[in-house]
Records
---
Amino acid sequence: MIALAGILLALGAVWLVLSPFATHARAPLTDGPDRVAELRELCALRDVAYETLRDLEFDFHAGKISEADYRELADRYRGEALGVVRRIDALTGGAPPAEPSRVGP
């Protein structure tokens, strides 16, 4: 009887350990290098979108592009920037991402 209980206990432990492999379940990554890399990439995309919007505004005020083109491009890049910012917010839980500290002037 004790041997049967020991065997059942061992089988239960083995099942708990091996069940993620059998069901192909994955643990969600909430931290770590993958999340940090994704956050850095999103911040870089956000900065590119903001820089593009600044350049677009400068070109419009300099008379290089028409108002219709300016409005179309500005709407498109604002939408892209908004999408990236929403993805950053979703990753950080609404808290602003920590910027790397800069040494020097």
Note: The chain has three helices and no strands.
---
Amino acid sequence: MPQFDIESYRSNFRDGARQNLFYFIPTFPADVIQGDMSNERTSYLVRSTGLPGTSLEEVQLNWQGFDFYIGGKHTFAELTITFNLDDAGLLRLNFENWINKIHDPVTNEYGTIALYMFPQRLQLLGYDGTPIMEYILHHAWPREVALATLDYTTSDVIQFDVTFRYAYHTVTTQPTGL
């Protein structure tokens, strides 16, 4: 049985990962990028997000009158990222262009998935800035570009959320360099 004292805790806990040490690396379709708003520049406008969630559906089996549960299909939660809007509004325009590439509301045309689904990378960083975990969201696309609040009573930077839907994610402890 492990000891339960402060010295055991201190020697085993060491330290924890920090919420502010992360890096989101977006990949836009090349034909939606406006001005100098590159994928790399967009990374510096990320305000907050979370690590992607996943769950397994349960399958109920009946065995001699008892319920027995086994793991079923993987389900991957959407990922929402909050961005600070650049002073020219190009970041928001890029996401609007991407959404319109999926479905154009004027022509009612739909894009093919190969032209709008792109991997997205989210890295959890260590204290020295190197990635300790990397999540790759496969076949990702922006499902929602949310409302951006405008307010005469404040001079804060405009923020807006983008919610990504994706097929699945993988996790690695080595950066992939996609």
Note: The chain has four helices and nine strands.
